[in-house]
Amino acid sequence: MAVAAAHAVRTRSWLTKVPAITATFWVIKVLSTTIGETFADYLSVNVGLGSAVTDAAMLAVLAVALIVQFRTRHYVPWIYWLCVVLVSIVGTQITDFFTDTLGVSLYLSTAVFTVTLAVVFVVWYRQEGTLAITSIDTPRREGFYWGAILTTFALGTAAGDLATEALSLGFRNGVLIFGGLILIAWLANRAGASQVATFWIAYVLTRPLGASMGDLLTQDKEFGGLALGASLTSVLFFAVIAVLVAREQVLANRHGVALKGDSPAGGRRQDFAWAAGGIVAVAVAGWAFSSQQAGPGATDQSAELTIQAAPGTGAATGPAARRPRPTTQLGNLSKFATITAGVKAKVDKNDLPGAKTRVKDLEVAWDDAEAGLKPRDSTKWHQLDDEIDAVLTSLRAGSPTRSDCAASLTALITTLNKFDGV
Predict the structure, then answer these.
(1) How confident is the model at residue 294 (pLDDT cuts 50, 70, 90)?
(2) Rg of the chain over CA atoms, in angstroms?
(3) Are residues 314 and 258 in the same domain?
(4) What is residue 290's predicted lDDT score, i.e. its pLDDT?
(5) What's phi and psi for 309, nearest 5 deg?
(6) CB-CB neighbours of 327 under 10 Å
(7) Which are the contacts of 329, defined by CB distance < 8 A and separation ≥ 6?
(8) For the segment 158-212, what is each residue's pLDDT rounded down to a tens digit?
(9) Above 50 in pLDDT, residue 409?
(10) Cβ(367)–Cβ(161) under 8 Å?
(11) What is the C-alpha to C-alpha distance for residues 358 and 344, in angstroms, rounded to an integer?
(12) How many CA atoms lie within 13 A of 199 on its CB side?
């Protein structure tokens, strides 16, 4: 009987498809959220695939990864966390599609995803009698689990954007608010609240926390960030994730997922130490690179930029373009105006291919600054975003015309001069 019981325990552990919920689990989860978001933006904007191609590609890759995950008979850390990163990307893209493409308000999308998640949980519980992730040991339960995970990412994206953009809380406050809410969920769990409920609440909140933390590291200092940039932040986070997942893979191979957090080899104290080490590594690297950029040789080049406009637009040029304008809270827009003026100069020379190449710089710069600019004045940001989209559309048309490109650029320059706040 003892042998049979031991075999049953080992078999159940072997069939468990998700990791033990320990400190390193939460660190990897938060960091993977930022990786997922920045990678999607990189493909769409920097690589130039566009949102449609990026969305389709990520959906296809996620489908393949989930097939591999479902075909495995036990928890394989690198496969599981690859799926989490991909679900993070797709969940973000779902919310962005509703908000940016369909024009659905963040209030409505947050409410819709909340109801959707509630429906998933109700059906899951009625079918299985439990929502505990420690019981993900059948294909149907795993299907419910990944359905809930995808919905939590979409909901977390919508709720996070609602707080930091629509309510203008900003990413610095986002880190404090969402981090504080997760702390409250943990304290509630320690006080005897439902482990299942507090887990899923925290899981939803890690999405906006990770996004806010990523924005804090990547945004320019004029927006309140540390100016590390998306590429450096992604590499830093990926390195920490790779180390922690590699440790998980070693422990899972040796001891199984059920023993990962409790065995002498895994150990909760050791797990906390590894999690703390990952956090410290991110903090120290961020501080070091930020201090390096803020050294004696670092200067603010924005004051030297001038806004140039086409003749007849009525837009200011030279020093007058940098006068404070109280019509917007967006702040200094001169770097975007300088790039736009460079694109316009090429169009005026009928160098449309050159203008098309140069406008990529505007697209990347505008996308990189979104998290810092949008909360300042969402209405004005959206107006500029629409006008930049019009410029991109005119230059990237199948048969672009000089007149269309010049008209969209002139309109954008006029608005940039009007909204420039420095």
Answers:
(1) low
(2) 24
(3) no
(4) 65
(5) -130, 155
(6) 12
(7) 376, 377, 380, 421
(8) 888 888 777 777 778 888 899 999 999 999 999 999 988 999 999 989 988 888 8
(9) yes
(10) no
(11) 10
(12) 15
Tokens of 57: 């590609």
- How many other C-beta atoms are found inside a 10 Å radius of the C-beta of residue 399? 5
**Nearest in space to 74 (alpha carbons), one of 3, 142, 137, 141:** 137
Residues 6+ apart with CB under 8 A from 287: none
Residues 221 and 270 in one domain: yes
Are 277 and 311 part of one and the same domain? no
Would 70 be classed as within a structural domain? yes
Q: How far apart are the first and last CA of the chain?
A: 78
Indicate whether 211 and 311 sit together in one domain: no
Structure tokens belonging to residue 374? 């949008």
- 405, HSE (Cβ side, Cα atoms, 13 Å): 27
Kindly report the length of the chain. 422
Domain of residue 143: give its range: 11-293
Measured distance CA(157)–CA(92) in Å, rounded = 6
Can you tell me the distance from the alpha carbon of 347 to that of 344, in angstroms, rounded to the nearest whole number? Answer: 5
What distance lies between CA 333 and its chain's CA centroid? 24
In this prediction, residues 33-47 reach a mean pLDDT of: 74
Residue 311 · residue 345 · CB < 8 Å: no
Closest CA to 212 of 195, 196, 183, 233: 233
Average pLDDT over residues 60-86: 91
- Please state the rounded mean pLDDT for residues 347-372: 85
- The answer, yes or no, to whether residue 340 has pLDDT greater than 70, is yes
Evaluate whether 309 touches 316 at the Cβ level (below 8 Å): yes
